[in-house]
Specification:
- The protein has 165 residues and is mostly beta strands.
- Strand 6 and strand 7 form a beta hairpin.
- The protein is 8% helix and 42% strand.
Length: 165
């Protein structure tokens, strides 16, 4: 059984994913909010984790939220910051977000497009200005958003399955 495997991955391990991260087909980008999209790369249902690209094509404030687990980000294009901090994440920047920190993502006026890779575990817990819970996203709501969008744009609900582990 093991002699037929390529590489050293166990036969029960999920398959690797190797895709072009920034797709040529615009339909792969899933709308999240006005002028905000995400591109799923890996949707890990076993650990409640997802990796995606976040793309913003406008300046302004996006969302106030926190994460119960750490988040890792890497800016591929453009720049952004959090209202609650003085630093700016620019192209090539690595960002670490500790668990429980509330932050509000802002894209500056002079940025035409921002794309950042995020590795998120747990959920995005949305809060209002009084830090009251107003919504959440997790790997399962992300999958549902993808299925709905991919059906609407003609890729089919099962298009997302290639990213699910």
């Amino acid at each position: 059984m093991y002699h037929a495997m390529k590489g050293s991955t166990h036969v029960l391990a999920p398959q690797e994913i190797a895709v072009t991260a920034i797709p040529e087909d615009e339909r792969v980008w899933v709308p999240q909010a006005p002028n905000v999209w995400f591109r799923p790369l890996m949707l890990n249902t076993l650990q409640g984790q997802w990796c995606n690209l976040l793309r913003v094509r406008r300046a302004g404030v996006l969302s106030r939220h926190l994460h119960p687990s750490p988040v890792h980000g890497f800016v591929l294009k453009g720049s952004w910051r959090y209202l609650e901090h003085d630093w700016v994440a620019t192209e090539g920047s690595y960002v670490f977000e500790p668990p429980g920190e509330i932050h509000t993502l802002v894209v500056p006026d002079d940025v035409q497009e921002m794309i950042t890779f995020f590795n998120i575990s747990g959920c995005m817990y949305y809060v209002d200005q009084d830090n009251k819970h107003v919504g959440f996203e997790d790997v399962f709501t992300k999958i549902d958003m993808c299925r709905k969008h991919y059906t609407e744009v003609g890729l089919g609900a099962d298009y997302v399955d290639q990213f699910v582990r």
